[in-house]
Write a structure and sequence with these properties.
BirA Bifunctional Protein, domain 2; five-stranded mixed β-barrel; single chain; OB fold (Dihydrolipoamide Acetyltransferase, E2P); eight-stranded mixed β-sheet; alpha+beta; 2 domains; 18 strands
Length: 443
């Protein structure tokens, strides 16, 4: 009987192994997809595509054991050859091919030019052909960087004593209230898709003190803008035993600092490929909501039309103001009006028309909403009543406050928006793997 040990070593190498230079002059085996073929006559350059990037191989008539005519772009192959140093090759090394084994062949030609730097096609076409357009080196680099963001989120919070949780995405009602709920039938019962893991995060603070989750959330909002999605990935955390809502902002600042360092260290290839300059996060200014409105109204000669919320144009101008005045890429806007925050947001004891809450703006776009939550049972009961709400359906949520909760707070970060601003993209769909918006349900 044979057993699997999990220790079997593959004979094939990765691109990084070859580019390290240790295999120069040695025969190696590599697999990948044929990205591009440049036929020069007796010699052809066959560029292979792997998860790490591109690798140039050299086909030679009479040396390589296959006819060049048998190869086509998007074949998947396993090749063997000798590593040679070549300054003219991308990254300085190439493989002189000896044997080529074709593992699979496409049955149709590629409908878009994925082997070009720019595919010269519309965003809608890229999204319609998403399983293929993502093979483009530039497109997939975006999502490697996005992987670095979520990796930084997890690693940093683990270091800070947080426990990762996984809350349900189907429930009887939403955590945020309002009409922006996707409703569905659940075994002859009414159910909704989760707008937020908010209630579960707070419940788990009573268990683990500090928790986080990276998961999809759903908003049935009929927006058709460059900044909205109906399903997105929310990076959430909730932390107990806080002294102030500023503790939450400090934690997010630490996450951003950690993540930018991680990206610079381990995702430099992708950053260079996309010509990304990482933002400054050594310190992030904060400004009160009402003061922010006054600043941009005065500097940019703008009338304050909505005293209870920030309009998209105001967010952009706040970002512009702090970039011009303080060279800041991020700014925390604090103390949002109570009427624009959920019932569980803690009111500012010095002025209860405002809350101990905040948004984080990145280059003038809101990427985070957070704040301190009400932890006292009676205070929460009173606020629910003041809003004309009932506790019906919130019995399990209210239970945690009846039995004691520490001062706590948290936030949610829109991963796709953060990626969009980091990469300098104009549309959040560019940094969403498979977007779900007002008009798109597939692929």
């Amino acid at each position: 009987m044979e057993y699997l040990t999990g220790k079997t070593e593959k004979k094939t190498l990765g691109i990084q192994d070859i580019l390290a230079g240790e295999y120069e002059g040695k025969e190696v085996t590599v697999n990948g997809a044929v990205h591009k073929i440049r036929d020069m006559g007796d010699v052809a350059f066959v560029v292979l595509r792997k998860s790490e990037g591109l690798l140039q191989t050299v086909y030679e008539d009479g040396v390589t054991d296959i006819s060049l005519k048998e190869l086509q772009e998007e074949d998947t192959v396993c090749v063997t050859g000798v590593v040679a140093k070549e300054e003219r090759a991308p990254h300085g090394f190439e493989i002189r091919l000896r044997t080529v084994t074709i593992l699979s062949k496409p049955t149709e030609p590629m409908p878009i030019a994925i082997n070009k730097w720019k595919m010269n096609t519309s965003l809608e076409t890229k999204l319609d052909l998403r399983p293929l357009s993502l093979r483009n080196v530039k497109e997939r680099a975006k999502f490697r960087i996005q992987e670095g963001i979520i990796r930084g989120f997890r690693d940093f919070l683990h270091e800070q004593g947080f426990t990762e949780i996984h809350s349900p995405k189907i429930g009887a009602r939403g955590a945020e209230g309002g009409a922006n709920l996707f409703r569905l039938e659940y075994f002859h019962k009414h159910a909704v898709l989760a707008q937020s893991p908010q209630f579960y995060k707070q419940m788990m603070v009573g268990v683990f003190d500090r928790v986080f989750e990276a998961a999809p959330v759903f908003r049935a909002e009929k927006h058709n803008t460059k900044r909205h999605l109906n399903e997105y990935t929310s990076l959430d955390f909730e932390m107990g035993y806080i002294d102030s809502f500023e503790d939450i902002m400090e934690m997010e600042t630490g996450f951003l600092q950690y993540t930018m360092e991680l990206l610079q260290k381990e995702y430099k290839k992708e950053l260079d490929l996309l010509k990304v300059t990482l933002p400054k996060v050594d310190k992030i200014p904060q400004v009160r909501f009402d003061k922010a409105k006054e600043l941009v109204a005065e500097k940019y000669n703008r009338t304050i039309r909505n005293p209870f919320d920030l309009e998209p144009e105001e967010e952009a101008l706040i970002g512009q103001y702090f970039k011009e005045e303080m060279d800041a890429d991020f700014v925390f806007v604090t103390h949002y009006p109570s009427k624009k925050r959920p019932f569980y947001a803690m009111d500012d004891p010095e002025d209860t028309t405002y809350t101990l809450s905040f948004d984080l703006l990145f280059h003038g776009l809101e990427i985070t909403t957070g704040g301190q939550r009400i932890h006292d049972y009676q205070t929460l009961v009173d606020k629910i009543a003041d809003r004309g709400m009932t506790q019906e359906g919130m019995e399990q949520y209210m239970m945690i406050f009846k039995h004691g909760m520490p001062p706590h707070g948290g936030l949610g970060i829109g991963m796709e928006r953060l990626t969009m601003k980091l990469l300098g993209e104009e549309n959040v769909r560019e940094t969403t793997l498979f977007p779900r918006d007002l008009n798109r349900l597939e692929p």
